[in-house]
Amino acid sequence: MLSALLIFFVSPTANAQIPIQKIIHLAAAKYSAYIATCSVSDAAATLRYPRTLKPDGTLVATDASDWTSGFFPGCLWYVYRFTHDAQYKQTAQEWTTGLAAQQFNTHTHDLGFMLYDSYGQGYAITGDTAYRSVLLQGARSLSTRFHANVGAIRSWDNPDFNYPVIIDNLMNLEYLFWATKASGDSSFYKIALAHANTDLRYRFRPDNSSYHVLDFDSATGKLLRRMTHQGYSDSSCWARGQAWGIYGYTVLYRETHDPRFLQRAILTADYFLKHTDKIPDHIPYWDFQAPDIPNAPRDASAAAVAASALFELSAYAGPHYREKAVQLLKALCSPRYLAPARSTDCFLLRHSTGHKPHNSEIDVPLIYADYYFLEALWRYGKSTGYAASRAITAPAPSTPARQALSQTLSAHIPSAAACSR
After folding, report:
1. Is 110 designated active site?
2. CATH number at residue 219
3. Catalytic residue among 85, 168, 215, 287
4. Does 10 reside within a domain?
5. Using N-to-C axis directions, what is the helix angle for 319-332 and 367-384, rounded to 10°?
């Protein structure tokens, strides 16, 4: 989830392909306008974390306990990385601090998303030891969801399942590897590795597509069923799940140097790319076997996750994967997917799909799409030398355009108290 230090050999003119400065200006303006509608002067508890839009354009914002809460602070940290502007550092710190209580949350497997993408970013940038303490307590909370009989971290506490382990859960493992390096406590590493080995054993079909959900008997560790929850069918391949797999196994190889994980990352990526290569703009449909292709909803979030993962994978498996990452990133930067500057919300990307089977969050912006988009942009910038060679000057905080955007955003928030719980 945090950008690894990657080494690439690329043309110095390659950064002209992606409008980095334009996108960071857009992000800075949108985020500042949203923040202007929220008061953080009372207490961090007043924060409302943007998640998506309703079909009518109304903002959906959450409290800190939502699984998506860490992505907006993470986006702010990326704006600070690009701009070196102290106002974004301060804002990122404020929105990160609002998640502090989640370090004690033992009822979710999503603490990697919630804490590592916020506090983890903050600690990597600032070295603030208070962030380290929160992260280590969060890792201990996450570890309580590991069951030795299964050899994996439990996902949902949902009575419809016995012991579910979803592919998304791979995204927590980087957090646990970090915790061992930060603390010297090897238990975090051992849990992450055990989970990875269990996932590797059961997750993939012979054609290298992935199952979304593995459900186990917690008493015996026996696999009971393999199925979907957010995909089209138990036999189909949910696009974002496949992207989580690329990302997760690439990180697993980085942290363990186990060639099995690199092979799995490559095979998972090749399946994803085989299908996106058939699509003119390469942005995947929400499920690769959706019956209404080519009219099925797209999922820009899957493309953003995959693009970020492929930049790292290219450092281990060759430049072909970097070319595919750039291809996806260029598509996301196109007018079809990138929000115009005149848009009246705080999101960067259009056309993501959250949970199609539940008719939820279809063809809308999603905050996690924006987070992985910015991470992919950062990795791209590092690969071209752009991110390291300059700081982007962010637009002034009180321009008339930003004030107008802030006023419009306020009108789209459900109530005057939208920034309070």
Report:
1. yes
2. 1.50.10.10
3. 168
4. no
5. 130
